C-alpha cells in the first residue's frame, strides 16, 4: 500500500524529463523547451520545480514578465516553506514515507542554494522590466532567507544525529563501497562556507542599493560577498570604488554590470550500493551522485565592448554549491537509506521463513523497481556565474565574445541610464544576450539584434558554427587571478 501511494513520485525520472529540455536550450530553441516542459507536467497541481524551470525558459526568450510571474509563484511556495521552518519545523523534518520507500516521494521543497538564488534571479527579472524599486524588495529577502535556512539546517543536523544514535547507524559516506567520494571532496566544494550562500546574490544586492542611491546599504552587500569569496579581487573593488563610481555616474557615464551565466547546473543520478543487513545479508539501496559536470568549466577571462576589454570574475560556482549541499545532506540520506534497507530486508527474510516464495519475490522486485535516488533539482540554473563591471558612456556598442573556432561572435547592446545590468547566458553552443533598460530615468532601448521590437522580446541568440567546432562559443579557460 505504501509503495502504491508513492509510486507516481518514485517512478519519475527527472533527468529523462529534462534531457530534451536542456538540449533544446543548447540548440537555441527555448520556445520548444517550454512545450516539452508542459508535456512533462500535465497535472493541474504543478510542483515547485515546474515554476523554477519555466521561469528560466521564459527569461531566455525575453519574456521577462512571464518569467517574473513564474518565479513569483515559486517564491510564494518557498515562503510557505519558510513559515513552516519558523513555526513548525518538526513537520518538515519528519517524513516516514521517505524511510519506507525513498526520498522521491517527498514533496520537492527546493535545495537551499536554489531558494537563495531565486531571489537574485527574480530581482534581475524586475530590473529587466525597469522595476528597480521592486528588485530592491526581492534582494532584501536574501539575508532573511539565509537566516531561516541556517536555523533550520542546525535543527535538521541535530535531529539526524540524535536519530542515528538511537538507531545505531554509524555509516558515513566513506563506508559506501563504490561511492565516488572525490566528487564531494573537490577543493572548490570544501572551500565553501556552506551550501546556500553565494557571492553573486550579495554583490547584486550591493549593486541594486547603489543604483537606488543607498550606499549605506550597498556597502554591507559588497562586504558579505567579500566574506564569502575573499580570494576574488573583483569583489573587493566593488566596495573600495563605491565613492569613485558615484562620481563617474554624476559625470554622465553609465555603471554597467555584466552578468555571465555559463552552462547548466549539474544533474543528480542514482547509484545502487549494497548495504549489509544483520541476519539478512546485502540489500541494494540507491544513493544520489553528482557526476563530474563538464559545463561547469565554461568561463571567460574577459569580454570586449568595442575596444574595451572587461575582465570577468567567476564569483559563484552553482556546481560546487550543489555538491556541497549533497555532502551536507549525506548523513541524513544514509540514515534513511539504512532504515529502508533494514525494513525491506527483514520483510523479505520473514516472508522467506514462512515459505511464501511468491510474496518474497514480489517484495524483492518491488524494491528494485522503486529503488532509485532523488534526481530532482533546478536543472536550468547555470553552473557558474561571472561578473564584470565598466563605466561606459550611454550609446550603442558591440560586444565581442571569443569563439572556439577563433572567430569572435558580435552582439549589439545599448547602454542607457546611470546604472544598467546586461544579462548574458551561454548554454552549449548558444549565446543569449538581453538588452535591458538602465535605472534612474534610463530610456527603453531597442532590444539588441531585434529591430523595431521593444525590450521584452527574445534576446539576441547566437549559435557558434557547429561544423567548425562542437565546443561552446567561448571555450577558453581564464588565467588565474
Give a description of the structure.
The protein is 48% helix and 17% strand. The protein has 481 residues and is α+β, with helices and mostly antiparallel strands. It has a 6-stranded mixed β-sheet. The chain has a 4-stranded antiparallel β-sheet with strand order 5-4-8-9, with no helix packed on it. The longest helix has 36 residues, at 132-167. The radius of gyration is 24 Å and the shape is elongated. The termini are far apart.
Question: Quick gist of this model?
Answer:
The protein is 48% helix and 17% strand. The longest helix is centred in the N-terminal third of the chain and has 36 residues, at 132-167. The chain has helices spanning 2-5, 7-11, 14-26, 30-39, 48-60, 64-87, 89-93, 96-100, 112-128, 132-167, 187-191, 199-211, 215-228, 233-240, 242-250, 318-353, 357-370, and strands at residues 254-262, 269-277, 281-289, 302-305, 308-311, 313-317, 384-392, 395-401, 409-415, 419-427, 430-433, 460-463.
Which architecture does the CATH hierarchy give at level 2? Alpha Horseshoe
Instruction: Tell me the series of helices and strands, N- to C-terminal.
Output: HHHHHHHHHHHHHHHEEEEEEHHEEEEEE
The count of β-strands is 12
Shape: elongated
Topology (SSEs and partners):
Layout: H1 2-5, H2 7-11, H3 14-26, H4 30-39, H5 48-60, H6 64-87, H7 89-93, H8 96-100, H9 112-128, H10 132-167, H11 187-191, H12 199-211, H13 215-228, H14 233-240, H15 242-250, E1 254-262, E2 269-277, E3 281-289, E4 302-305, E5 308-311, E6 313-317, H16 318-353, H17 357-370, E7 384-392, E8 395-401, E9 409-415, E10 419-427, E11 430-433, E12 460-463
Parallel strand pairs: 1-10
Antiparallel strand pairs: 1-7, 2-3, 4-5, 4-8, 6-7, 8-9, 10-11, 11-12
Amino acid at each position: 500500500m505504501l509503495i502504491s501511494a508513492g509510486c507516481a513520485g518514485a517512478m519519475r525520472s527527472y533527468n529523462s524529463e529534462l534531457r530534451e529540455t536542456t538540449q533544446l536550450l543548447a540548440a537555441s530553441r527555448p520556445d520548444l523547451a517550454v512545450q516539452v516542459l508542459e508535456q512533462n507536467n500535465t497535472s493541474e497541481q504543478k510542483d515547485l520545480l515546474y515554476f523554477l524551470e519555466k521561469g528560466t525558459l521564459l527569461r531566455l526568450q525575453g519574456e521577462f514578465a512571464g518569467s517574473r510571474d513564474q518565479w513569483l509563484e515559486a517564491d510564494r511556495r518557498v515562503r510557505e516553506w519558510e513559515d513552516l521552518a519558523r513555526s513548525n519545523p518538526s513537520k518538515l523534518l519528519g517524513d516516514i514515507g521517505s524511510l519506507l520507500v525513498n526520498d522521491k516521494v517527498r514533496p520537492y521543497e527546493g535545495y537551499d542554494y536554489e531558494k537563495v538564488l531565486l531571489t537574485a534571479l527574480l530581482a534581475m527579472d524586475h530590473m529587466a522590466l525597469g522595476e528597480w524599486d521592486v528588485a530592491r524588495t526581492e534582494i532584501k529577502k536574501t539575508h532573511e532567507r539565509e537566516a531561516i535556512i541556517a536555523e533550520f539546517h542546525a535543527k535538521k543536523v541535530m535531529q539526524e544525529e540524535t536519530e542515528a544514535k538511537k538507531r545505531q547507524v554509524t555509516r558515513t559516506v566513506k563506508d559506501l563501497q563504490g561511492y565516488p567520494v572525490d566528487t564531494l571532496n573537490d577543493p572548490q566544494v570544501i572551500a565553501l562556507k556552506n551550501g546556500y550562500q553565494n557571492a553573486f546574490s550579495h554583490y547584486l544586492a550591493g549593486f541594486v542599493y547603489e543604483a537606488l542611491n543607498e550606499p549605506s546599504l550597498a556597502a554591507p552587500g559588497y562586504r558579505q560577498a567579500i566574506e564569502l569569496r575573499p580570494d576574488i579581487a573583483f569583489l573587493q573593488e566593488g566596495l573600495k570604488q563605491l565613492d569613485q563610481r558615484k562620481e563617474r555616474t554624476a559625470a554622465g557615464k553609465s555603471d554597467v554590470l555584466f552578468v555571465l551565466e555559463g552552462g547548466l547546473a549539474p544533474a543528480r543520478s542514482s547509484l545502487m550500493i549494497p548495504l549489509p543487513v544483520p541476519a539478512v545479508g546485502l540489500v541494494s539501496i540507491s544513493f544520489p551522485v553528482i557526476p563530474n559536470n563538464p559545463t561547469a568549466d565554461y568561463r571567460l577571462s574577459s569580454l570586449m565592448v568595442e575596444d574595451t576589454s572587461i575582465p570577468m570574475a567567476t564569483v559563484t560556482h552553482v556546481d560546487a554549491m550543489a555538491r556541497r549541499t549533497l555532502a551536507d545532506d549525506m548523513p541524513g540520506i544514509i540514515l534513511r537509506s539504512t532504515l529502508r534497507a533494514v525494513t525491506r530486508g527483514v520483510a523479505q527474510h520473514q516472508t522467506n521463513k514462512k515459505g511464501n516464495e511468491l510474496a518474497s519475490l514480489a517484495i524483492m522486485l518491488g524494491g528494485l523497481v522503486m529503488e532509485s535516488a532523488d534526481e530532482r533539482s533546478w536543472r536550468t540554473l547555470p553552473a557558474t556565474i561571472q561578473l564584470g563591471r565598466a563605466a561606459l558612456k550611454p550609446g550603442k556598442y558591440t560586444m565581442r565574445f571569443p569563439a572556439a573556432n577563433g572567430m569572435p561572435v558580435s552582439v549589439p547592446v545599448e547602454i542607457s541610464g546611470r546604472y544598467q545590468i546586461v544579462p548574458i547566458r551561454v548554454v552549449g553552443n548558444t549565446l543569449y544576450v538581453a538588452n535591458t533598460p538602465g535605472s534612474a530615468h534610463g530610456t527603453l532601448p531597442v532590444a539588441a539584434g531585434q529591430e523595431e521590437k521593444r525590450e521584452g522580446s527574445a534576446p539576441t541568440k547566437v549559435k557558434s558554427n557547429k561544423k567548425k567546432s562542437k565546443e561552446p562559443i567561448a571555450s577558453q579557460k581564464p588565467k588565474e587571478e
